[in-house]
Design a protein that fits this description.
Layout lengths: L1 E5 L6 H12 L3 E3 H11 L2 H10 L7 H12 L8 E4 L5 H13 L6 E6 L2 H9 L1 E4 L5 E3 L18 E2 L6 H15 L1 H8 L3 E5 L4 H12 L4
Parallel strand pairs: 1-3, 1-4, 2-3, 4-8
Antiparallel strand pairs: 5-6, 5-7
The structure holds adenosine-5'-diphosphate (2 copies) and zinc ion (ZN).
Zinc ion (ZN) binds next to loops.
Length: 216
């Protein structure tokens, strides 16, 4: 199963991806996670990406496409993949089509998580991430059992530096200007499915599951 999760920052892509990949046993490919890992390691790519990520701007297409192209060619993607946060521009979408054609593969589903802008701000400013395993929490909507500690691995939780009100504004503008046009692109290919991302986390998961299993 070859899947894309789309949706604005804070829509719940990462939260839902964690659940869906464990059920379908496919790798979770998050370009955001890839950039944060490279930034932490201080690789040349990470240093370049940081200039953009820190400002809430999209990283240039050539860097982003290169990462995904390499990742999709790794052995564990043979059974399928879940792309979370890629593509985010029309250029990235066209490049993905070329990469998949070259591998004689195709997309099965593009799922768009729909969430209103006001709710996105509340979700992003309350988001907390585990330093050790990357699990995502929310101080109000999805709190850990012990404050500041991960339920799964007891790792310490932190707030992303781009999850401030100011950066969120820029990120949402980037989404509207550059990413939202992709919805029409996938609609035309009859791949797009809308899911109401404003429901409880479990309800969103079951709606996605129904779409993926062809029951909705
Ligand atoms: P969110 O979970 O809020 O949607 P991500 O973790 O996916 O955010 O992305 C964080 C940042 O990484 C983005 O603001 C952007 O700077 C960069 N980024 C992630 N994916 C892409 C992409 N496909 N194209 C360009 N930049 C990206
Ligand atoms: P994205 O990857 O799309 O940026 P996340 O999955 O990181 O979004 O979710 C953003 C924040 O909202 C996190 O703090 C997460 O715990 C919370 N969240 C995700 N889905 C829901 C939901 N259905 N209801 C309430 N809060 C949610
Ligand atoms: Zn953890």
């Amino acid at each position: 199963m070859n899947i894309i999760f789309m949706g604005p920052p804070g829509a719940g892509k990462g939260t839902q991806a964690e659940r869906i990949v464990s059920e379908f046993k496919i790798p979770h490919i998050s370009t955001g996670d890839a950039f944060r890992a490279a930034m932490k390691q201080g690789t040349a790519m990470g240093v370049k990406a940081k200039e953009y990520v820190d400002q809430g701007l999209l990283v240039p297409d050539d860097i982003t496409i290169g990462i995904v192209k390499e990742r999709l060619q790794e052995a564990d993607c043979a059974s399928g993949f879940l792309l979370d946060g890629f593509p985010r521009t029309l250029e990235q979408a066209a490049a993905l089509d070329d990469i998949l054609t070259g591998m004689e593969r195709k997309l099965d589903h593009v799922i768009n998580l729909r969430v209103d802008r006001d709710l996105l701000l509340a979700r992003l400013t309350g988001r907390r991430i585990c330093k050790s395993c990357g699990a995502t929490y929310h101080v109000i909507f999805n709190p850990p059992h012990r404050e500041h500690l991960c339920d799964k691995c007891s790792g310490e939780l932190y707030q992303r530096s781009d999850d401030t009100e100011e950066k969120v504004g820029t990120r949402l503008d980037e989404y509207i200007n550059k990413t939202a046009p992709l919805l029409a692109y996938y609609e035309q290919k009859h791949l797009l499915r809308e899911v109401n991302g404003e429901q409880e986390i479990d309800a969103v998961t079951s709606e996605i599951n129904s779409v993926l299993r062809g029951q909705a």
